[in-house]
Specification:
386 residues, mainly alpha, elongated, 13 helices
Length: 386
Amino acid sequence: MHAGGEPLILGDAEQQIRQLVALARFERLAQCLLVLARDASHLRQRAAALLGEAQRVAAAIFGILMALHETALLQVVHKGNRSAGEHPQPVRQLALGEALLGREDAQGTRVLGLELQPRQALGEARGSVRTNLGEEERSAGGPGLHGGNVLVRFIHTMNHSNEYRSRQHPSPSPGALAIVHTALFAASLAAFAALTGGGHIPSPFAPASESLPYLAQQGTALRWSAFFLFGSAVPLGLFAATAASRLRFLGVRAAGATIALFGGIAASAALAASALSLWALSDPAVAQAAGTARAMQLVSFAAGGPAFAAAFGLLVAGVSVSAGLTGLLPRWTLWFGLAIAAAGELSSLSLLFAPAALLLPLTRFPGLVWLIAAGFLLPRAAKETP
């Protein structure tokens, strides 16, 4: 071979090698793109699997929160009982350039490298949180904080909150019920006055020849007044039930709570009976029958007057004495309630003597004030003793 041709041959060989290397790299790149396109469905499946893992983790956390209420099954987990692997090794990340110039099976490792990046980031985040917790505990001068202690302290806090809520009496507000009762009773009086031009229901002690013709002309006013009066009986009964239940919840074991419940239910029933008698009186056929109309008028007065006042006095006395003597209500509510109860019991004399009917408004209207005050002042939770 001619000596002058050796550089030319060597130069051609080097150029061919560079072309082969470039061609190999281009083929590797093309194969990588094909693998990525072919494995797109696999990546979507992997994303769905990661979503499923997140949902299972959320379900496990929810199960732990639900188990916080079962205080009898709590157990402190010591650090020595924890499994190894507290500091996991970071997962090795495969580079794309190495995959292009490496072995033929580097196609699978590329996909693996894409899948392991989220796990590596999660491990780094968990390690940083663990480091921050350890630094905070060491700065406080205490031992290292671990997952068991965090869980026990969190459970203790939740149990203390649940215990505090359990000491609250689960019931509607007696004060709100008293306000609703007062509003409906006032509406019954206002409805009759508005529909009659400022009139009022005649007294049963007035001559029947004067009161019955007047009532016969006021059927609409009687009907609306009876409606609101009947409605006021419901919150009054609920007040009695709530107050008696709360007194027992607060530790009252005396008979006063039961007396208050009896008085409240009886007063509610008396109001309902009075309202229904007024409603019957509003019917034109009943109003035109003098004997029936007179009977409905007397029944309405007897039920809404002396019967209600005597029963309402028992409600007020039962709550005032039981809560006042145990310190659950202020002393002024005790004496105020006893005065109302005395007026209510004495008003039953109106069945024998007409002047005793003056005690009925002294029971009714101050009783509404006491009802609202006692409803809001009666505590909902027992006082904690040191």
